Structure formats: C-alpha cells, structure tokens
Amino acid sequence: MTFDATTGTWTANPVAIKGSGGFKFRANKGWTLNYGPTDGKLVQDGGNISAPGGVAGNYKVVLNLSQAGNYTYTLTKL
C-alpha cells in the first residue's frame, strides 16, 4: 500500500479479491498488528474482509487510519 500524506490514507490499486475467503489489513507482514471489521467497525484482530456482495474482481482499496478509534476502509470495484 502507498501512503498519501495529503489525504492521510493508504491505497492499493488494483487488488485482486476473490469472491470467497477474505483478507485483513496487517502491518509489516506480521499478525501482531492486524485490522478487520467487527460490528461495522475496523478494529484490531477483527474479522476478515470479503469482496462486496461476494463479487470477485479487481478493486481499489483505501485504508484510513487518520481518526483514532474510527478507522475505515473502502473497496471500489474497477
């Protein structure tokens, strides 16, 4: 992922996401610091992120960690 200091977001584009399974955001190729959704929020050790509606394809992934306690991400199908 690439950091954009202007927006305070991390972006990866394109990312191939399978229709099943899932992924998490993690730091430095390890699992000590990892984020996934739980109860609609992106939290430490949360669940897996799946392709929206289970639709596999290439996505633009944007991760926003600029608001402590209110981390967000978006997946936009390309």
UniProtKB/TrEMBL annotation:
Domain of life, source organism: Bacteria
Record's protein name: DUF5116 domain-containing protein
Organism: Chitinophaga pinensis
Lineage per the UniProt record: Bacteria, Pseudomonadati, Bacteroidota, Chitinophagia, Chitinophagales
